[in-house]
Write the structure tokens for this entry.
Amino acid sequence: MSKIIVSDASPLIALAKLDHLELLFCSFSEIHIPNAVYLEVTSESQRTDAQRIGAFVTKHKAAQCFIHHDLKSAEYLIFKGRLDEGESQAMALASQLKCGVLIDERLGRSIAAQHSIPVVGIMGILLKAKESGAIERVKPLIAQLLIHKYRLSSKVINIVLNRAGEQ
């Protein structure tokens, strides 16, 4: 996968809730965010996760984190018929940049695969962070995600914990 990624909203919110947005840089050198996604994740400015995402983008803007104008391309229109605005923009931008998309929603992941767009999710970010030594364990972070009502299947959790050697 490319060293750049386009992010959808859910993984950004999840990493912000964990206060671990910097873990994105264990896997990628550049994070690209469609404006629709950025507005979605920062619009409720009283929320701690929205504040963290805003601060993260501001800190890394123009060097590692890029906000893109929303697209109205033919690719966007294909995705728009099947996904919400943020997901559609993320898919269209990933297609344009010829990179992967950071997304966890099942439908979005399925549609990305249909269009040969590489996919990574929050679990992949956590595994890579452990491999790089940025975090010691993934299990406590998964537990925190579950407390925050982040939807993860027990099958995926078991696979990740097994790969992380934390079963």
Summary: Residues 12 and 22 are 10 Å apart (CA to CA).
